[in-house]
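Researcher: Let's try something more involved. This one mixes different molecule types, so please make sure each is placed in the same coordinate frame as the others.
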Amino acid sequence: MNVASRLFSLILLVAAWYVGSEIAGPRMLPGPQTVGFALWTEAQSGALAFHLGATLARVAVAFVIAMAIGTALGIWMGRSRLADRLADPWLVALLNLPALVIIVLAYVWAGLTETAAIVAVALNKLPNATVTVREGARSLDRQLDEMAQVFRMSRWMRLRHVLIPQLAPYLAAATRSGLSLVWKIVLIVELLGRPNGVGFEIGIAFQLFDVTRILAYAIAFVLVMLAIETFLVQPIERHVSRWRPKAA
Amino acid sequence: MSPAGGPKQLDVSIAHKSYRTASGGTIEVLHDMTFALKAGTVGALVGPSGCGKTTLLRIITGLDSDYTGTVRLPDHGKLGMVFQEPRLLPWRTVEQNVRLGAPEATDSDLDVLFGALGLAAHRRHFPGELSLGQARRVALARAFAVKPDLLVLDEPFVSLDAALAKHLQEELAALVTSRHVTTLIVTHSMDEAIGLADRLFLLSASPAHVVAEVPIGRPRGPHTAAELAKIRTEISQALGKVGK
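Model: All components are placed in one shared frame. Result:
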């Protein structure tokens, strides 16, 4: 039932696309079969894997850096009122700085380098992760904290068995919104200053008004992210929430 | 108990403990709270609700260090505690909860404890799948698994039905008798205190201090009606003296 309804909605989307391309003409909106064929050609030449790989690597590195720092910062700000007061204005500033400004400044200051690209993406994601985790850290259960203290649990044990499980739903939310945000920003970073990656390819296609190629790369990337969500994020989420009593 | 180490008994001597209220005043919760509990015995702190028993336990367990006075824990000061709420980690199984509290407990230690507390079938269950009575048993198992130098229990049977509370109380009595753990239990139930303790410490209303100590003859033994009546008379006499 679940799978069937999802499949039905997907078929509906492709059908709408097909009808749209018939109306708008193949130059403005190439049909699914044209894009599918382009995807196949790019895959065969190896270009797809190369650019997809470059983009995925940037997504992974920037995401991990942003989540690690954002989590640490979020826990710190959630637990210490002083830290919250000190760091909050910075956070608000970063949160409201347009992604494009951070990217351009990073490239101006550090040159068109990989480091600049990664830092720019991570900085864009960082405040988002921090705010989400801070919310979680504010609602930590003091009673469990005291229990851990009385039983003299080590720092590591407290982190692993008391703190992180309580933050799990917040970390999951930050991961979800983070992955989609990061990959969108990575594409802009690549468009503006990298010689490879999906963003770079889309930039070239834009200059040639090659809508087919733009759609082919976009779809390829969406499929990859969908696979990550289905085969990585969701199973992890199911595992960490296995203790919750199931709804009848 | 163990031969080496620090003092043999629990010594509590708290001159003052007060809280600052939201309106800026201070409320004194404990005043000249002094008592000692011999190694291997069970002491019960009995007093009216709201008299500061939980505060006292927080000081003894080191959760609150904002007081004037001294607290000396027996031996190495290893603590096992049962809070009013079970305070289990919901995302860990029963067995993991006990092991996390007591990493040094061996498999056979756990087998014995789970057997004695009727938890053998629940080792792999999560706390959300247990009844309150079962969760309380897990909290007891965790506290005993530590092999504590001092076992602290804060109204461990509150909000259980009378029959279940009685049953758990008997299990607890059997455990402290067989293990000779120095135990401090807070309760507002006189029956519970008489059924478990070697010595009762009767507390006054807030600011709390010990108004009388009543030793129990044949602790945890089944008491005859006559013995119970005698103990109760002693208690009311002790309290009566203070009242005047």
